[in-house]
Amino acid sequence: MAAVTRCSFHLVRRLLSHQYKRRCVRVQTIKTHKDQQPPAFLSKLNNARLFHTTSAWRGPILQFKLSDIGEGIMEVVVKEWYVKEGDKVSQFDSICEVQSDKASVTITSRYDGVIRKLHYTVDEIALVGKPLVDIETDTGPEVPQEEDVVETPAMSREEHTHQEIKGHKTQATPAVRRLALENNIKLSEVVGTGKDGRILKEDILNFLAKQTGAILPPSPFRETHESQRPKEKQPATQPATQPAAPKPVLTTKDVTESLKGFHKAMVRTMTAALKIPHFGFCDEVDLSRLVALRADLKAISEARGVKLSYMPFFIKAASLGLLHFPILNASIDEACQNITYKAAHNIGLAMDTSQGLLVPNVKNVQLLSVFDIARDLNRLQALGSSGQLGTSDLTGGTFTLSNIGSIGGTYAKPVILPPEVAIGALGKIQILPRFDSNGQLVKAHILNISWSADHRIIDGATMCRFSNLWRQYLENPASMVLDLK
Amino acid sequence: MVLQSLCALRAQAGASLSGLPAALEHGGPGAGLVLRSLSTDVFRNLALEDWIHDHVDLRSRGVLLLWRNSAAVVVGRHQNPWRECDLRLMRRSGVPVARRRSGGGAVFHDLGNLNLTFFSSRGGYDRRRNLRVVTGALEALRPGIDVRATDRFDILLDGHYKISGTAAKLGRTVAYHHCTLLCSADRRLLSSLLRPTCPGIHSNATASLPSPVQNLLDNDPSLTPDGILQQLAEQYLTEWGVRGGSVVAVQPDEQSFAGIDRSVSELRSWDWTHGRTPKFSVHTTLELADPTSAEVCTATAHLEVKSGRVESCKLSVPPAWLPRAACADLAASLVGARFCPSEAAAAAAPFLQSEPRDVDLDARLRNLCENIVALM
Questions:
Q1: Which of A401, B135, B148, B202 has the most Cβ atoms closer than 10 angstroms to its Cβ?
Q2: Which CATH code of 1.10.569.10, 3.30.300.130, 4.10.320.10, 1.10.3470.10 fits the domain covering A167-216?
């Protein structure tokens, strides 16, 4: 280490003009506040980077040659670059990944500095012993970065590097320096207990403990590797401290990213929906009898292996209503010239999945029993949660119900999904006081329904009559039995 | 019993990173340690490999990790899973695909396949010596068996059946070399899964070299995975001069190995297993069929996929079959979606659904979409 620092000192001396050579100036990079260590949850490859402001003059550009991989291998394939030209790297940061006969090798940087040139592109063959990257170093090769700008007098030739601040000499081994650096500690503020006031590792740890009030047991592994692995997996028990320093300014910036995936899909659907003149119609439904019915049937259904919720009843009631009002199950063409009355009642259910809002539909509800609908819903829900809904499930819908109430809300203003012409949004089921036919106050299970319809072909009266019919089926489930097909 | 004493020691050590302080202290310089994972989840075991690579001091002592997984296909770091295995069949059979951090080719793992990972310092990295442990163990169990390591670090049985493949990862100061050992794997499943998902993939990703394989159990019914495991441990300890060592069983959970859960979820994520594929293109023909009139038509599809997402999509369909504008719109709706059937279906659904169309046109468009999704 001594020889190295002496070497860099000479390099610096040579670069200075004559008048300053009397006092050897070692201009060191100023550490900004940005080098707080990132939280430990970043992956190993995203190692911490120390940001340094570049000094007034530039360092030499060194060619980092691809070192011997071993086993007599002379060439490798470059598979992935972790840096690009202009990136700052620290010693031991990962630079690239190369592959040689089934061995994947991570090449790490030997120097601190800025990447100036990548000699190979991905999938090119790199030769051992030839330059891999050009790195412009800040102060010279193999010198651990020092803190603070200092003016030091002529370098003494002692074994350890010195740092003179305000007239005090602080001695510390490079390993101790690195530890201080990682924890943003100024060596001038640490009391050294070693020989000649030398700062020892224990002094740094004690200093940290006092600052944070925590006991920081050094991990057995780190103790032996203190000078070799400064960047790997900063343990969470060593928080960075900045005693008596101005508060770091965290600037959060706007983040812009292109629309992808389901956002794009929603934009498309909703832009098309905008062309439809919507009108809304809302009502409340007393589900007290339905609640009792479902409670009875739940056990039977589960015995058959199917979970029974309220949705199958809502869907079947809607289909029964559509038989009387087929215009709500229709589609109008682009030029608004023709109405197509769809034969199948493919009732869609708006589902909140990991991929966003998807609307799979149950096909041919007019032919299905409540139990069949429940079974199909189970299937769609399982596919939706595992992200496996296919094209046929997601297309072909003719009417939609949205159960937003399962998350919350009472009344809504749903948007029609073209090419459909109507949609219903179900609020949550609330227990509210209502007067029954005898004028008695009773507990009622109330659901709010909000319909939206295409006013080009559907009028308010039609929607209202359909809603009344739907409500009647649900308020008195026994009436559904009369019209079941 | 070993685990209990380890737990007690760990409690004493407090915030110590390692879950195996006693085991690691055991033995002097040149010693080796044998660990056996109690997990059969491929992602957890791969995460355990990473954990040992990152946290264990390997300068003075090497570690051998023995592990087995339930059925999975493991592809190499720079490989293309769509080219290496039949992802559609795997989704139907519930077999996951995993990507390891070392290079090399694709392998099929199941409980009849034994995995060995030899951890050492960078200087102590010696694949030949490691494979000698394997061949030595097999010869000790069954004298006269013909097992040989090749130049490519495969192990061949009887001169031409591959029973073991190798891959390695070299870091700055540590390295690991892992290899498989086919004891009693399901060969039928292996051969049906290790074929491409779809034709027409052009890629610079590492290609696998298929080889004929055989199970050790087929050769000799006495060679069971457990028996081989025990012998391997003994052979390793003998090779590294450790006396009185034993196999330490470890449960790779968050409690004993801090940070492993995060590693597991990263290895399990789609962005790692599929998204890390080097850029590739798919150029193939599609056989379209009209569901109602039973007419057929041939079209071509060309997709560029980068980081697992469709970067561009070009469909060439005869204009008599489908209008050019509709095909272009369908292709445009797929751009930016992941190259995965459910996401592609979700991306195309609004386009297919939202515009009122002629019924026949609609059916043909849907058929085209399904054909494209079938490529993924």
A1: A401
A2: 4.10.320.10
Q: Which two tokens stand for residue A485?
A: 């097909």
Count of residues making up chain B = 376
Fold of domain A42-165: OB fold (Dihydrolipoamide Acetyltransferase, E2P) (2.40.50)
Residue with tokens 């070692």: A26
Q: Which residue of B has its CA nearest to A98?
A: B103
Which CATH code is given to the segment(s) A278-483?
3.30.559.10
CA atoms B138, B140, B142, B146: torsion sign: positive
- A267 CB-side CA count, 13 A: 8
User: Which pLDDT tens digit goes with each residue over A15-28?
Assistant: 444 444 555 444 44
Q: Which two tokens stand for residue A63?
A: 């060619």
- Please state whether beta strands A103-108 and B166-170 pair in parallel, antiparallel, or not at all (unpaired): parallel
Q: Provide the token pair at A342.
A: 């769809």
**The predicted structure's pLDDT at residue A279:** 94
Do residue A232 and residue B54 have CB atoms under 8 angstroms apart? yes
- pTM given for the model: 0.69
Of residues B16, B54, B373, nearest to A391 (C-beta): B373
Minimum-distance CB partner of A272 among B14, B170, B355: B355
Q: What is the pLDDT of residues A109-152, one digit of tens each?
A: 887 888 888 888 887 888 888 888 888 887 644 444 333 333 33
CB contact under 8 A, B349 and A92: no
Cα(A52)–Cα(A46) distance, integer angstroms: 18
Distance CA A129, CA B245 (A): 41
pLDDT in tens, B57-105: 787 778 899 999 999 999 988 899 999 999 988 888 889 999 998 888 8
Q: What ranges do the domains of chain A cover?
A: 42-165, 167-216, 278-483
Average pLDDT over residues B258-284: 91
